[in-house]
Amino acid sequence: DTGVSQDPRHKITKRGQNVTFRCDPISEHNRLYWYRQTLGQGPEFLTYFQNEAQLEKSRLLSDRFSAERPKGSFSTLEIQRTEQGDSAMYLCASSLATEGGYTFGSGTRLTVV
Amino acid sequence: AQSVTQLDSQVPVFEEAPVELRCNYSSSVSVYLFWYVQYPNQGLQLLLKYLSGSTLVKGINGFEAEFNKSQTSFHLRKPSVHISDTAEYFCAALKDNAGNMLTFGGGTRLMVKP
User: Fold this and answer.
1) Distance from C-alpha of B31 to C-alpha of B86, rounded to nearest angstrom
2) Is the CB of A31 less than 8 angstroms away from the CB of B100?
């Protein structure tokens, strides 16, 4: 296992379109996290899964955002009706035990034009 | 509320000089503390972590950090930096009884000059 994989690495979309990102965590990790990072800022928490259950969601996750982890393995993050303010790096991370720190993927950079 | 403050947005330093990147956290309970490094167009890589025990924590690439409970600080240090250390560094904290959310500071850009 080579770590956390995210696909695609880059996505350019027109405002109003829907986009979906995929994250494949480290296989033995049961926890999966989504973060958003805008230019010059630290990552901001979006949501967290333990196995297939979505246990926590940030207020940043508006109703246009939805995340799933149907079989407790890979996860998808969908953004509907994208807005220019959604332009950011979307980071996925996984962990086995919270105290150990997360392993992050390389991120998906979204540009909404 | 948990917050993490990185006092310097940019730190320029000459190659082979020592460096300290400052991080303060606010919390009324025990925390777990982390430093991550981010190279351009990449994700975050864990440098080191403090969970408990010795307050001096050694990490990868020659970095170390010291947990200071009285000053609520977790500053990152390296005695001699290399050009390859040029990157963005993030301090993060996890409150042990507030779910599983890492809270990040705003980041410090370390710029190593030849």
Assistant:
1) 28
2) yes
Report how far residue B91's alpha carbon sits from residue B4's, in angstroms, rounded to the nearest whole number: 7
Give chain B's contact residues with A (Cβ, < 8 Å).
4, 32, 34, 36, 41-46, 49, 51, 90, 92, 94, 99-107
Provide mean pLDDT across the span A21-40: 93
Apex B94 CA angle, A28 and B37, nearest 5: 75
SS3 label, residue A98: helix
User: How confident is the model at residue A98, as a pLDDT?
Assistant: 58
Q: To the nearest whole percent, how much of chain A has pLDDT over 90?
A: 68
H or E segment and range at residue B42:
none
pLDDT score for A100: 65
Q: Which residues contact B101 (CB under 8 A, 6 or more apart)?
A: A45, A48, A56, A58, B94
Tally C-beta pairs within 8 A across A and B.
64
E strand or H helix at B5, and its extent? strand B3-5
Nearest to A8 by CA among A72, B28, B59, A19: A19
What is the pLDDT confidence band of residue B30, given thresholds at 50, 70 and 90?
low
Which of B88, B86, B23, B83 is CA-nearest to residue B57?
B23
Residues A48-78: tens digit of each pLDDT: 998 899 988 888 888 999 999 988 899 999 9
